[in-house]
Amino acid sequence: MKRIFYSSGSVVTGDRLAEAIVAYAEKLSSREASDTIDIPISLPSGEIGRAQLLIGPASQLVVVPLEREGDAEATEIEDEATVSDLARRTAFHSSPRPQASDDADTTDYVDVNGFYESDHGSRS
């Protein structure tokens, strides 16, 4: 189990979930994007609850292993659907995206099959 600290508090969740959240937050930050995620958490009563986190470039997450007092055994939270969803979202933001160059010369192009000449006359 891991505790995720954020701006004004913390939540406790499973190890793989915490790792997936950090990977996704890092990718969003590099893309200057943000997203809201819904994750399972361990409530102080020991029951499983849900939390929504807004993550993005301004997110400052700190993840630490959970330390339980005494012999209290924490039940690891495992949610494969959420881990898979976070991995999918991370991969989506990892994909290269075409970006226009500021110095692109849009007047220089290839005349495919004489299209320009047939419709606009000869190009000089």
Produce a short descriptive summary.
The chain is α+β, with helices and mostly antiparallel strands. Helices cover 30% and strands 24% of the residues. A hairpin with a 5-residue loop joins strand 3 and strand 4 (48-55).
Structural description of this entry:
This protein is an alpha+beta fold and 124 residues long. It has one domain (2-94). Helices cover 30% and strands 24% of the residues. It contains 3 helices and 5 strands. The chain has helices at residues 15-30, 80-94, 115-120, and strands at residues 2-6, 9-13, 35-42, 48-55, 62-65. The strands form 2 sheets. Strands 2-1-5 form a 3-stranded antiparallel β-sheet, with helices on one face. α1 runs parallel beside α2. The longest helix is centred in the N-terminal third of the chain and has 16 residues, at 15-30. The radius of gyration is 24 Å and the shape is elongated. The chain starts with a strand and ends with a helix. Residues 87-124 are annotated as: Disordered.
